[in-house]
Structure formats: C-alpha cells, structure tokens
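Internal tracking record. Fields below are filled automatically when a chain is submitted to the structure queue. Please do not edit lines marked as system-generated. If the sequence contains nonstandard residues, flag them in the REMARKS field before resubmitting.
Queue: standard
Priority: normal
Entity type: single polypeptide chain
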Amino acid sequence: MNTITFEELQYLQSFLNVDRLSTKEDTLERFKKSWIVNKKTTFEILFFLRDCRGGKGIRKQFYWVINYMARHHNQILIKHLNRIPYFGCWKDLWELAGTPVQQEVIDMYIAAIVIDREHMLKNIPVSFAAKWFPREKSTLDKEFDIVYNFSLSMNLAPSHIRKCFITPLRKYIGVCETNMSRGNWKSIDYNQQNSANYKYRKAFKKTNKEIFIRWREDKETFSPVSE
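SYSTEM-GENERATED OUTPUT FOLLOWS
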C-alpha cells in the first residue's frame, strides 16, 4: 500500500477546500494535483463538492472539473455518469454537451425516459430526466443538435419523442412537485428528487474534512477509479 506524504495529503485537502469563490484556473489546478495523489479519493471529493444533500452543493466548480474530465479522462467519467444526477441534477449532464461524452449523456437520458415511461404507466416514482430534456430550438439544441441526436439514437421523430415520452412525463413529474408544495410528504420518494430540493439544509458546523469523512461513510463505496 502506497504511503501518502504530508505534501500529497495537502493536495487532497486543497481540492476539498474548493468553494464557490474558487476560480476556474485554481479549481482545475487543485483537482489535477489531487488526482495525481489519489484518483479514488479525488473522485469522491468531486461529488462531495456537488452533493446538495450533505456536501457543499457547489455547481460551477463541479462543472469545470467534469468538463475537463470529459476531455482528458473521458473513459473514467463515462463509467460514473450516473453519479452526476444522483448527487446533483439531471440538468448537470448538459454541461457535457459538445464534449467527447455527449453521446453517452444522450444514451443515459434515453435509458432514463424509457424506464420512467414504464414507471409512470404503473404509477410509481420516476426520475427528473424528462424535466431537463432540451427543448427543440433552444440555445442548447441549436448549438449541439441535441434533439436531432436523440431522434437518431431512438430512431423516432422528435415529435413522437415529445408526445409519447417528454410531455406526459413532465406532467407526471409536475404532480410530484405539487405534492411537495402542498406538504404531501408521504407520497414522495426522496431518492428520486432533484438535489436542489434539499437547498434548505442546515449550515455547516464542522470543518470540511469532518463533513467529508461523515459524507463518505454514508454513501455507497466508489468503485476503483482507473484509466
């Protein structure tokens, strides 16, 4: 087992201390140094930074890092794409539009809305994937041809995707959100909810290190990270 030196430990701690005021250059520099020391721990820290249900709930700095990973460590990121909506939001995945992992993001969305449609018909909880499905001719769609690529991948016309999947799922999701606003908590599956719904969490009272250790113990074990 490799021993981590004090200097290397400082690099991990430095990345853990990234906050909303950290610049892009500084964030990526901290990430790169931490990544060299320990990939697995760095990856855990990355999702701790994003997690709104127990982590720091940071978006912009998280987006910079996953965008960098999509261009330099894309195979690793692809293996863990499903963690992005779990710790953050389905919308986060569109920060990867135009990167080498765009098609994998589309494939993940397709899998989600197909399963969600089946769940909707059985009146059981769904993800929020359809809520963040790009609209035709939106800025995102115009720049990266997202809807067109969905159509090609599903072998369905955009109008059919919208009519049979997106529109009914958005209505179904809307009912879930209405239940939340009315305080009908018993009908809500918390594991399916967007992390943004946890924004009223308590303010941190411990150090980043203590919070991170507790957070990691509560999460499923990350699989080994390798190229």
